[in-house]
Amino acid sequence: MSLNLNDKKAVVAEVAAKVATAQTIVVAEYRGIQVGHLTQLRAKARDQGVYLRVLKNTLARRAVEGSAFADLASEMTGPLIYSISEDAVAAAKVISDFAKTNDKLVVKAGNYAGKSLDKAAVVALANIPSREVLLAQLLGMMQVPVAGFTRGLAALAAKKEAESGTVAAPAAEAAPAAEAEA
pTM here? Predict the structure, then answer.
């Protein structure tokens, strides 16, 4: 189905708006993938907040023109699916995870914050933990010193209590013995 000029302008404007807020774009060749599998990929992308679209390469080139992702235009050949995300890792993770289970989806290239990525770099980016996981790890690391300090104070308090309890007990035993002698 061919698009008229107004439809093409609308598609370019929509994609350009997504590109303007994006941190990462990943392109992958989808030749030979069944429609059902593409539907699963789209659902997974939607769940992760990733804009996923099959575009004419000329329209995609116009959408990235003048942006930080302009270098990606040289990789836009063949039947491509475009994965665009505001999250630095999400676009790469969705495409890379799906490519592991479906060999017909081939990661071609990507771009993160204006830096071109080859296939290996896209896979490496996909292996970075998500923002939520990184924040949880940071919080855990921040809790370690506090927890250690708390345990140290509790151990010190227990030691002081034990020392004062052992010192008081012999003195208490000595007092009745002194009274018995008198």
Answer: 0.69
